[in-house]
């Protein structure tokens, strides 16, 4: 029983590590560069590392994907080796002939489903929600470890990044090209929907944007 507890603990630890990288990915992608620059200028080493990482999205995503893939493989392999066998033995001992005949396959399916559920909730969804809601704070916390891993896996990261660039060009996406900036209409919509702003504050923001349009037309 103690051996099983150790193996289950190892699997859970690997799922948590997966969650670390999932949170890092979404946080670094969604963090506001202006906020990171401000923190970096104030002396934050984490913010400075985050800015360097986000300046090369292909390298960043390749690094995190390598880590997530390796951790996921280790968690699945550990579960299959350590838990599927004992579960198969237990299913076979229940005395049901039909259940005994499918015990081998059923044990693998059951373990896979449990690990998949645990990984989705604890290793993906919850960490990504954390990373999205606290993007700058998480980015500063994870940036330096991720940067070290990017250096450690640099040959593989380079290969994956360049391969991704090639495939991106084939589907019409320019490598390193970011999303389009926020338009004036989108800013107005955000201001209108923002419940924490007073009506007077909303009106002033709209007038400032309209004043910019007026000056531009006059020029």
Give a structural overview.
The structure is a single chain. This protein has 219 residues and is mostly helical. It folds into two domains: 2-170, no CATH class; 184-218. 84% of the residues lie in helices and 0% in strands. The chain is built from eleven helices and no strands. Helix 4 packs antiparallel against helix 7, helix 4 (57-82) packs across helix 9 and helix 10 runs antiparallel to helix 11 (199-218). The longest helix has 31 residues, at 103-133. Residues 214-219 have low confidence and may be disordered.
Report the biggest beta sheet as strand number plus sense, adding barrel if it closes: none
Q: How many domains, in number, for the residues?
A: 2
> In angstroms, what is the radius of gyration?
24 Å
**What is the general shape?**
elongated
Terminal-residue CA separation: 79 Å
Number of strands: 0
**Helix/sheet category:** mainly alpha
Specify the number of helices.
Answer: 11
Q: How do the helices and strands follow one another from N- to C-terminus?
A: HHHHHHHHHHH
Q: How would you state the average pLDDT, rounded?
A: 83
Q: Name the poorly predicted regions.
A: 214-219
Helix content: over 70%
Q: Approximately how much beta-strand content do the residues carry?
A: under 5%
Short description:
This protein has 219 residues and is an all-alpha fold.
Present the secondary structure layout.
Elements: H1 2-30, H2 33-41, H3 45-54, H4 57-82, H5 84-92, H6 97-101, H7 103-133, H8 135-152, H9 154-170, H10 184-193, H11 199-218
Helix pairs in contact: 1-4, 1-7, 1-8, 2-3, 3-8, 4-7, 4-8, 4-9, 5-7, 7-8, 10-11
């Amino acid at each position: 029983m103690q051996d099983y507890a150790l193996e289950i603990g190892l699997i859970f630890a690997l799922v948590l590590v997966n969650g670390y990288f999932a949170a890092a990915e979404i946080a670094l992608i969604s963090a506001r560069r202006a906020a990171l620059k401000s923190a970096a200028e104030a002396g934050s080493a984490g913010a400075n590392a985050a800015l360097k990482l986000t300046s090369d999205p292909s390298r960043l995503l390749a690094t995190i994907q390598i880590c997530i893939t390796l951790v996921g493989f280790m968690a699945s392999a550990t579960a299959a080796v350590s838990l599927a066998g004992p579960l198969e033995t237990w299913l076979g001992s229940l005395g049901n002939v039909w259940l005994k005949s499918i015990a081998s396959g059923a044990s693998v399916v059951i373990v896979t489903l449990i690990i998949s559920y645990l990984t989705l909730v604890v290793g993906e969804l919850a960490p990504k929600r954390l990373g999205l809601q606290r993007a700058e704070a998480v980015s500063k916390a994870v940036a330096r470890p991720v940067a070290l891993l990017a250096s450690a896996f640099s040959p593989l990261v380079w290969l994956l990044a360049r391969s991704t660039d090639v495939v991106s060009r084939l589907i019409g996406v320019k490598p390193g090209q970011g999303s389009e900036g926020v338009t004036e209409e989108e800013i107005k919509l955000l201001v209108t929907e923002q419940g924490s702003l007073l009506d007077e504050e909303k009106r002033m923001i709209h007038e400032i944007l309209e004043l910019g349009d007026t000056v531009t037309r006059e020029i």
